[in-house]
Amino acid sequence: MATSSVSAEFMKGIWKDNPVLRLLLGLCPVLAVTTSVENGLGMGAAATFVLLCSNIVVSLLRKIIPPRMRIPCFIVVIAAFVTIVDLVLQGFFFELSKSLGVFVPLIVVNCIILGRAEAFASKNGIFMSMIDALGMGIGFTFALVAVGTVREILGNGTWLGFPVPPFTAHPWIIMILPPGAFITLGLLIAGMNAITQRQEELRKSREREARLAKGGAA
Amino acid sequence: MPEQEQQRSVQPPEHEEISEAREQIGEALAQSSGAATISPLIMLPPVLIAAVMGLLLAMVYAVTEEPIAEAKRKDKQDKLTQVMPAFGNDILATEQELSEDVRLYVGEHEGAASGFGMTSAVKTGYSGYFSIVFGIAPDGTIERVRVLESAETPGLGSKAAESPYIDQFDGKPLDYSFMVAKDGGEIDAVTGATITSRAVCSALSQGIGAFESAGGIKEFASRPTDTAEQPGATEAAPTMAAEEELAVAEETMEPDAAEAPAAEEVGSGN
Amino acid sequence: MGVAEILMLVLGAILVNNVIFQQFLGICPYLGVSKKLDTALGMGFAVTFVMTLAVAVTWPIYHLVLVPLDLGYLRTLAFILVIASLVQLVEIVLRKVAKGLFDALGIYLPLITTNCAILGVALLAIQNEYNYPVALLFAFGSAIGFILAIVIFAGIRERMELMEVPKAMEGVPIALVIAGIVAMAFQGFAGLGG
Asked: Is B115 helix (H, G, I), strand (E, B) or coil?
């Protein structure tokens, strides 16, 4: 049972409670850096690193931090790890750092990280906080790659730089521009909603059937 | 979920609910407001954590400081190599600041100036911060232009920074009127990206202007690695009328300037 | 710097490089904004105040304190703490001076701290190497652009009430698609002045 709850914690961040598509957090970077899948992956990796470190530290310190001042404490921890990622990117991944631009330091106000610190890491042990961070980070990256894929293929005719033949001829530049970002994300979230609603309906109708079957048998 | 939190409405009736998670953050933020006014001692934990984190950061900075400086140097070096005629010296060591936004680099090859590189930044105008790097051949023409830094998110604007549009500057003489067609000039702009095309022209003009004011090719070609303190070199007249300059530059061409590309025809658009 | 250039900078910040539709900063409060015009404006003014004040305070901290001490890398940490404090200040002031607005904004007031537009503009003012007066103008212009965007959206929200939207699109998805259409309109400003 312990294993299933660990994998459940991990998986929830990827699908059921996907931070971008379900919790509606961290929308700004998803819109801004997804002009290419490569940028999306870079941002996802950076944010996941910060999320992991901050969840661990917040979980470590959760008994010491006074409840009233918890947000300022979280912010300090997160800001420190964001700075570390920023410096490492500048020093060793210069081109990526320039592509992501101001959105690297802006990871500090990414509500996903602050949100997980508040909702989970401050109330759970280190190991589970790590799992939560990994799940949420991968979910974030998944959303980035999904939007990035649509925008890069339709808007540039490539995927991760590799040409995608049917689309290279006449790319829709609008997809690379802001409108493309907004509309793609909007439709993606709508798609997610539709899938979830369908699952809900299926679940409800199964429950109803089960109740009816029990009532009939009694 | 508690409805009241210090007399603050969780969800004011007119606001759309974005998501529970965000509201959670808002509530937590609300709790810390004014906390400092109650008891300054409550500031201690964040301050202590900040101090420890600060130490951690200082250590990371110590490790990354040099790689970052190196990455920046390399980037600039690569860009200058891209736009200038071939050179063999330590190009970054020749950096001169002609003005706050313009820098000059002198390329050398076999002991003589083989070309110049310049960076020019414009900060005002619609494009926000915009800077280019371009090379000048010894015969007084533009070698190549590339965008260095731009505040723009990629899109149409960046098309103006790519071939073929950015190539239309190659070979133009320094006294060319770098303006987009809309402003009366001859430079083609990318449809819908007039502003970026304008920014390129504006930065180019600014850079060339600073170069000429500091003495132009005459000044720097004769003493490649000295800072230009004294008045211009021995040959030709100190003032350069536009048409004269080309002729004079051709007269005094360095022997290995034969490597420099022939100037293309003025006015040939793309 | 001439008056014309200053004007272009401010106009650019408002329209051409609109903080929401071009730079993608401040999406979250934008999506949650009220459809009541006065509440939306109130939110806009609060953001304007915090944004301009944030740049007014963070710019000197960076250029006069951090840089001379070679502590430039601490700017993210310093800036976000300054912004958090400023928002707390604004909360205290609003609670006394404009209780109505304070109540109407609810938790969206402290959420201004996590508004990426504020930190974003403060960082951009440094990155673009503006001097102090220009930086302040840039902040002010960006904030005006923000107000413009949310006022437009507040107006659209009224109409949205009457729309029949597929259930999956309700809420944020339709708001994003509409933002995309408005962004398309703003693309037209790319040819401004010519």
From this structure: strand
Residue length of chain C: 194
Nearest to B134 by CA among B125, B124, B121, B150: B121
Please identify which residue in the block is written with the tokens 């829709």.
A172
- ipTM, two decimals, is 0.88
Separation CA B103–CA B117 (nearest Å): 8
Long-range contacts of C62-68 (CB under 8 A, 24+ apart): C62/C126, C63/C126, C63/C132
Interface check for B126 against chain A (CB to CB < 8 A): the answer is: no
Whether chain B has a CB inside 8 Å of the CB on C130: the answer is yes
pTM of the model: 0.83
pLDDT of residue B255: 42
Q: Any chain A CB within 8 A of the CB of B73?
A: no
pLDDT tens digits in sequence order for chain B, 270 residues long? 443 334 444 444 445 556 778 888 888 888 877 666 667 777 788 888 889 999 999 999 999 999 999 999 998 899 888 888 888 888 888 888 888 888 888 888 877 788 888 899 887 666 677 888 988 888 888 888 888 877 665 544 555 566 667 778 888 887 777 777 667 677 776 665 666 777 888 888 888 888 888 877 777 766 545 444 334 444 334 444 444 444 444 444 444 444 344 433 333 433
Q: Which of A84, A91, A111 sits opposite B57 (nearest CB)?
A: A84
CA distance C192 to C194: 6
C157·B16 Cβ contact <8 A = yes
Neighbours of B270 (CB within 10 A): 9
State pLDDT tens for residues C159-182: 877 888 888 888 888 888 988 998
Start-to-end CA span in chain C (Å):
21
Residue B167's domain spans which residues?
A: 84-259
Parse chain C into domains and list their residue ranges.
Answer: 17-191
Cα separations in angstroms, A101 against B170, C82, C139: 29, 21, 18
**Would the CB atoms of C190 and B156 count as touching at under 8 Å?**
yes
pLDDT of the residue at B157: 52
Residues in chain C within 8 Å Cβ distance of A46: none
> Where is C174: in which H helix or E strand?
helix C172-187
CA distance A135 to A8: 10
- The beta-carbon neighbor of C77 closest among A80, A102, A106 is A80
Q: What are phi and psi of B231, to 5 degrees?
A: -60, 165
Buried b / exposed e along C118-132 (16+ C-beta atoms within 10 A): bbbbbbbbbbbebee
Where in the sequence is the domain holding A167, given as residue range(s)?
2-217
Count the domains in chain A. 1
In a domain, B46, yes or no: no
Residue with tokens 């090859």: B109
Residue B239 counted as domain residue: yes
State the total domains in chain B.
1
Q: Do B156 and C73 touch (CB under 8 A)?
A: no
Q: C156 to chain A: which residues are within 8 Å by CB?
A: none
**8 Å CB contact between B34 and C88:** yes
Query: If you search the block for the tokens 């449809």, which residue do you land on?
Result: B191
**Beta pairing, strands B102-109 & B96-99:** antiparallel
